[in-house]
Design goal:
The structure is a single chain. By secondary structure, the protein is an alpha/beta fold. The protein folds into two domains: about 10-300, Metallo-dependent phosphatases (Purple Acid Phosphatase, chain A, domain 2, 4-Layer Sandwich); about 305-390, no CATH class. The chain is built from 13 helices and 15 strands. The chain is globular and about 65 Å long.
């Protein structure tokens, strides 16, 4: 048991995508990868995660839980560096589960000058050996996957699942985006839920892939292939909260039909505005609050002399906007200067959606839809029509805070 306190706080981060500094020389090949990394920061994650650990040592949450894609593309050295950084935690446990980019990822690379070179991949055994501090906290482990359970306090049981599809040897191709909870792990999960029920513990689920569809236009490969089976277990055992990642977007979905479960996805830590979730459990509720990490107080004196590090969210937004601009400007009519307002609209809509700040009034939405920029966007990019209309929410729902009552 991690804590004897009935009122316990833990933090959630996801999709940190750390690539160890030792795997690149900041040369031509690495800069190309940074420019095509879909808005991820690859340059400063060692600094950011080290600062995050310093904040944890000051504020002392009971645990930090990482819901997958710990590494950039499954480089063994990146996992070792991640563990080295988080080994500095003093009063906080680090609990991790793998994402689709972590185990036997054929894209694992190191970068030298203008070359991409193969890097050693992470095996399932490597994962458990490197993150032994996490698995040492386990109440129980699944022998057929990297899933394990941890008792948080006298009332809550954490179930950290392995939703990824990987082989038994190093891979040569791209990692599989889709995932599922395998048959044997599903049996293990049911036993854990039975244990929680018989011991009057409230189960909280953690996994990389999603339980629900979070965007009706873009969801293939993100939702578990066997999500209905997991939802059935959630219904049977009254699982009220699931935490996941994978989509890089801040999104919360409440209970659906017969499923009593709220699913909370925190946006990627290496993108946007360095989001993390603060979760407070009590005898009567689980409360989640999305926070933005301000790392300036936890930088060294030398690091504070670096403009990028002291204006890090500005830097992250520029990376994201540059990524979206490149995607929108390549070989199509929107590249023309007269379409810059259209590009700006597309970029801002995406940014607001991925950070969870996408709630506007119906009148604001109608004004947006009738604007010249939006109409031009639909005309020039008809294939985006359905997606664009999913980016704003006019309901009273929020993606930033959730309180689940017991």
């Amino acid at each position: 048991m991690i804590s004897n306190d009935l009122n316990t706080e833990f933090w959630v981060i996801t999709d940190t995508h750390l690539i160890a500094d030792s795997l690149h020389d900041n040369g031509k090949a690495f800069k190309l990868i940074q420019d095509t990394s879909q808005g991820k920061d690859l340059n400063y994650q060692e600094v950011a995660l080290t600062a995050f650990c310093k904040m944890a040592n000051e504020k002392k949450p009971s645990a930090i839980i990482v819901t997958g894609d710990v590494t950039f593309n499954g480089e063994l050295l990146s996992a070792l560096r991640f563990q080295e950084i988080f080994s500095k935690l003093t009063d906080t446990k680090i609990l991790l589960l793998p994402g689709n980019h972590d185990i036997f990822d054929g894209w694992a690379r190191k970068f030298k000058d203008n070359q991409q070179l193969y890097a050693k991949q992470i095996s399932p055994d490597n994962w458990q050996q490197i993150f032994t501090l996490s698995y040492d906290c386990a109440l129980d482990k699944d022998n057929n996957s990297l899933a394990y359970s941890v008792q948080l306090n006298p009332q809550y049981l954490l179930l950290l699942l392995d939703s990824n599809t990987y082989g038994y040897k190093p891979a040569s191709g791209a990692p599989k985006t889709a995932g599922k909870i395998g048959t044997k792990q599903l049996s293990w999960l049911k036993k854990q839920l039975e244990y929680a029920h018989s011991h009057h513990l409230r189960p909280l689920l953690f996994m990389h892939h999603n339980l629900y569809v979070h965007n009706p236009a873009v969801n293939q490969g993100f939702v578990l292939d066997n999500a209905p089976a997991i939802r059935q277990l959630c219904q049977q055992y009254n699982v009220k909260v699931v935490f996941s990642g994978h989509i890089h977007a801040q999104n919360i979905i409440g209970p659906q039909k017969l499923t009593p479960t709220t699913e909370i996805v925190t946006s990627s830590f290496c993108s946007y505005d360095q989001a993390f979730g603060v979760v407070k459990v009590s005898p009567t509720s689980v409360r989640y609050d999305r926070k933005k990490f301000n790392m300036i107080p936890f930088l060294t004196k030398k690091q504070r002399q670096n403009y990028v590090l002291t204006h890090f969210h500005e830097y992250l937004k520029k990376i994201q906007l540059r990524n979206l601009s490149k995607n929108s400007d390549q070989k199509d009519p929107l590249a023309d200067r007269k379409f810059q307002p259209v590009n700006k609209l597309l970029i801002e809509m995406n940014y607001n959606y991925f950070t969870g700040h996408n709630h506007i009034s119906r009148s604001q939405l109608n004004h947006l839809y009738s604007s010249t920029a939006f109409q031009t966007l639909l005309q020039e990019r008809p294939r985006f029509s359905e997606y664009l209309k999913t980016l704003y929410d006019t309901t009273e729902h929020t993606n930033l805070v959730s309180e689940i009552k017991y």
